[in-house]
Amino acid sequence: MNAVKQLLAQLQAHHIELWESDGALRFRAPEGAFTPALREQVRAQKTAILAALRAQQHLRHDPDQRYAPFPLTAVQSAYLLGRTRAWQDGGTGCHGYAELIISEPEPRTADEYQQAWQKMVACHDMLKVRASPEGWQCIDPQVAVPLAITVATSAAQHDKAQQVIRQRLKHQQYDPQQPPLLTAHLVLGPQGTTLHLSVDLIMTDFVGINVMVTDFLQALRQPEQALQPPTLSFRDYVLHIRQQQESAAGLRTTGSSR
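User: That's the sequence. What structure does it adopt?
Assistant: Structure tokens below.
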């Protein structure tokens, strides 16, 4: 396989792209770059090359590059552009706000909620994402994602706290370059427990929010168990999709290696 990797590297150096289509090996190359000698090497290693190309299609986890920059998705780029004044109705981010009532059979302390929240944060790197107008994003491990907690001692105090937090968070705007892009505020009181969440949706979507809240509740209710972080990061996914898109572009160019 080392010989195949060396051959693929040599082809890449000559800007020759190979891909598989319906079991056949196809190519795209600058005029004159794919010499008869290189063609013969590719023919001789065709089976091994196809196996190597198929292996590249598998989504792989890359923890060593966890904090390295990676591109914004098309949706994230649209959200970023929409918050500028380039559009008549622009100037605002795509924002979500929710109030979640947490029902527990036994009262929980503020410390228990705090520990569960931080355990959840440690499992989700995108809570610490920093997005740049240049089109990239990265995880900043130095970013803190706090959980504010208000403990109300009366029904009136509880209602007042809810109203103040609601007014502050329901239309909150964020600077994508200044994370965290989420604000969480928990109210504990005689009328129950409510989690107020304000989220810039350039960071995640509602499915992601649901996963985050589910993990938070699991950490709260099963504190002795370790939370399992995702097996793949958002960075892994974005780079894999980008690789597939760039490779698929070659399908528009005819050519084959026989």
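The beta strands are 17-21, 24-28, 70-71, 95-102, 129-131, 136-139, 147-151, 182-189, 192-200.
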